[in-house]
Amino acid sequence: MMPKYLVCYDLSTEKKRSKLRKDLKNLGLHLQWSVFEVETDSLEKLKGFLTQRVEIDKFESLMVFRVKKLIAKMGTDWEVPEYRI
Questions:
Q1: At 17, is the secondary structure helix, strand, or coil?
Q2: I need a labelling partner for 55 at 20 to 30 A (CA). Which of 15, 19, 21, 32 fits?
Q3: For 67, phi and psi rounded to 5 degrees?
Q4: H helices then E strands: how many in the chain?
């Protein structure tokens, strides 16, 4: 099983958010508005993918967290996973 990462972002314009959201939907599972789960065997590839697609300005953020274990899940799925990288 490949490692899972959470990609979370807070971008200032809808144009930037929409572009990154579209790109990330091709890469992982859309969990919440600005949160994606991505499975990949290379953190460096993921970081490269992100830095090629968005430039982070002052007062914006993009964070990547490694997920070791899901502790609890409540509510319904945001979407059904179709694929993994």
A1: helix
A2: 32
A3: -100, 115
A4: 2, 4
